[in-house]
Amino acid sequence: MIFYLLTIAVQVLCVIDVIRNGRNQLWIMALIFLPVASTIAYVVLEVYPRFQGNRHVRGARAVVAAKLDPDKDVRAARVALATADTVANRMRLADALSALGNHGEALPLYREATTLGPVDLRSAEKLARAEFESDDPAAALATLHAAPAASAQSDRDRIGLLRARILDALGRKDEAPELYSDLVTRLSGEEGRVRYAALLIEQGWDKKALGVLEEVEGRMKVMDRMQRAAEAEMYRWAMARLAELRAKG
Which range of residues forms the domain containing residue 105? Predict the structure, then answer.
């Protein structure tokens, strides 16, 4: 009985999908007179291909694949480097290691790659990020100073966010907030705002931090679940601090 009801429910959903998406009307006849076979065929031929192109589905599939086999990209990059010891393959392996948080192992590869080949803005940024994540903010700042100038605003802002984190780590607390306050007016993600709020809280500027975190909260409300899940830990921290600041007020 349950199987029969489920079949009817799926059958009805498929008919609705045919009508809404302007599919061939012959599907309706097939779904009515051959419910099981035609439902399977419709899902395989009409529904599944659409979901294949959905960026959220692709993203979710990539996340699952990464969790099931997190070292896949590293293994492939090691094979490529063993086959051809090129600057591009060194960068590829370093990128794969950095993606897993192995910045210490990635750092010498980035340094070798930037020594052997021309240093563009992106490779300099990757090297600086690896130096910073390997607890060497002074070297990271020096790398950014020596990097080619960014021409696009998005590049300047991305590197600016890294620079603000470096200045904070170096104890240059007067420079970092000013940089953050400028960046958050343009950055599309919430990392800049959350890091800015953390620095403000650290310096005792609770009222200003409250305003920044309320902006984060407002932006969260218009995000879908998958967008929030991508930075779940960051948003949990932000909302916990927001609750504490509100309780103080």
Answer: 73-149
